[in-house]
Structure formats: structure tokens, C-alpha cells
From TrEMBL:
<dbReference type="GO" id="GO:0046872">
    <property type="term" value="F:metal ion binding"/>
</dbReference>
<dbReference type="InterPro" id="IPR010505">
    <property type="entry name" value="MoaA_twitch"/>
</dbReference>
<keyword id="KW-0456">Lyase</keyword>
<keyword id="KW-0949">S-adenosyl-L-methionine</keyword>
<dbReference type="Pfam" id="PF06463">
    <property type="entry name" value="Mob_synth_C"/>
</dbReference>
<keyword id="KW-0408">Iron</keyword>
<dbReference type="InterPro" id="IPR000385">
    <property type="entry name" value="MoaA_NifB_PqqE_Fe-S-bd_CS"/>
</dbReference>
<dbReference type="Pfam" id="PF04055">
    <property type="entry name" value="Radical_SAM"/>
</dbReference>
<dbReference type="InterPro" id="IPR013483">
    <property type="entry name" value="MoaA"/>
</dbReference>
<dbReference type="InterPro" id="IPR007197">
    <property type="entry name" value="rSAM"/>
</dbReference>
<dbReference type="InterPro" id="IPR050105">
    <property type="entry name" value="MoCo_biosynth_MoaA/MoaC"/>
</dbReference>
<dbReference type="InterPro" id="IPR013785">
    <property type="entry name" value="Aldolase_TIM"/>
</dbReference>
<dbReference type="GO" id="GO:0051539">
    <property type="term" value="F:4 iron, 4 sulfur cluster binding"/>
</dbReference>
<feature type="domain" description="Radical SAM core">
    <location>
        <begin position="9"/>
        <end position="229"/>
    </location>
</feature>
<dbReference type="InterPro" id="IPR040064">
    <property type="entry name" value="MoaA-like"/>
</dbReference>
<dbReference type="InterPro" id="IPR006638">
    <property type="entry name" value="Elp3/MiaA/NifB-like_rSAM"/>
</dbReference>
<keyword id="KW-0501">Molybdenum cofactor biosynthesis</keyword>
Amino acid sequence: MEKRTLTDKYGRQLNYLRLSVTDRCNFRCYYCMPEEGMDFAARKDLLSYDELLFLSEIFCDLGVSKIRITGGEPFVRHGIMPFLGELSTLPGLEEITVTTNGTLSFEYIALLKKAGIRKINVSIDSLDRARFFQITRRDNFDSVYSCILRLLSDGFEVKLNCVISAAKNVEDIIPFVELTRDYPLRVRFLEEMPFNGSSEFDVLNWNHRSIYNYIAGNYPEIIRLENEPHSTSENYRIPAYKGSFGIIASFSRTFCGTCNRIRLSATGELRTCLYGPPATNLRDLLRDGATRSEIEDALLLAVSQRAKDGFEAEDRNVKTLKESMSVLGG
């Protein structure tokens, strides 16, 4: 019998799961959630670790080979490390990565190494302490930067994710590129998206072309790199620099044609596209007594109805896009 996989009607196999473990965060970044008034999910409404593990096993049986742990901030959820340890043993799972705001303690770094997790994405939008505070509404720059350096010194593969806003942090673009001179970092500049939990979004903000042109205006030579399969970023480096930088057209959505991602929120909402509505709720199916086979069928049906791209998915979304990124699962 042929193995069933999460393949949509356009022939794209979804083998990369973005798995949110919480909608809570110890930061309040302006592009992710409002400063106050967040209505976080009740703890009973979050998928338990046992439920997350069971669903992850089903995803892997259907061809998922990479899981990225997201939030909110994953490390604010108690018990995350034992869960990651169990997750790492799933058959078929080749890679686990974690996206964090960098307020990891050194204890977690050691435990991550022990679990075999060596790829960490750190969300950091400024290398200037004052702008960092303005963006995150928290005074944690020193601890985040120290964590990045410690991860590098311990041999982790580190990506830095930087959301660019014309009104907030354009001045940080070149300092981030310069950081790749001496460190084997992979910096990613992202277009801002409308998922900030409010009605404020500047659609005329800097796009991927603006970001590239700004960088190109500061360097006489930029080397274009070959992108990895299914990459969301266009990647470059400066000659003789140890690291690289990339630009992600997250709002322009230029990479949709090769997208291999599927998302599960901390409350069980399944999305086949970040811009689209939930396809189903796996938590509800699970708690209503659905069998493993019925959950697999629900996943395959959701993927079979996947939109061609983020624009079609957005057209299907009768809800406003002004939800918080922490609720959607990053």
C-alpha cells in the first residue's frame, strides 16, 4: 500500500510543520501583539504535551520530517524540555528547530544540546538598546545578545530574524549585515505582516526590494547564494564575511509556489497557509474521540483543499487578518 503524504492538488508535499506550544510571551513586540489587552487562551484549551506528541507522530507518519517549535515564546511554557526530548525520538523526524526571543537561560542551552537540537532562530529586531526596547517593550537586550553569543560559541546554527519597519529599525539593517562579518550567523530580514493583534498596519512599509536596495547601496559587491529547496528567503553574503543574510518577502508572498509548510496552533487550529482561515481544529477532533485514522483523514482533506498561494488564502479568510501572530503560531 502506498504511503499517504500531505500533498496538495498542486503536487506540493508539506513536510515541514510549524508547531506552536503556547500563545504566551514575555515580550510585547509591536508587530506581534498589542502592549495590553491580549486575551490569552485558557491553559485547558492548549494542547497538552501528550496531545502535541501524538499529533506530531501522525504528522511524521504522513511525511513531515522537520518540525519548528514556535509560540508565543516556547520557553515560557513549563515542561518544554522533556517534551522536546520525547519529540526528538519520533520515527521519521529528521530535524527540530526552535524559534525563540532569546531570553533562554544557559541551562536551556545545555539541555537543547543534550536533546540533539542544534538549530535555533532568535527573533531580534535591533542591535540598539533603545530601539530594542521600543520594539519589544522590554529591557532585555543584554540577555538576548549574550544568549546569541553563547549559542554560537557552543556550536549551534543560529539564525536571526529581524522584522523591518520604516518607522522603527531601518538603521539596524547594516549593523546586522556587519554582524555576519565575524560570526557565522544567518540574518533574515522580514517584511512586516498584518498579524499584530490591532488594526494598525502600514501596507506601504518597506518591502523586499526596498531592503535589498538599501543594503546594495552600502556594499560594492554582494554575492547571491543558491537557495535551499523550499527556501522562503533570497540569500546573499558579503565577500569574505563569515555569515550570510537573506530577505523574506513575507507580505509580498513571492515564495508561495514552493511552500512546504503547515501550521498547528497551541489550541489545535490547523492552517495550510498563514494568511488563510483554520482548516480544522485537531484539538477538538482529538478530545471528541476521533481515531488516529480519522485525524489522518482530516489532515489529508485539509491539505487537498489548500489554496494556490497566500493571496488566494487571504481571499478565503472571512475573518480579519488583524489577529496576533502569537495566536496564529508564528
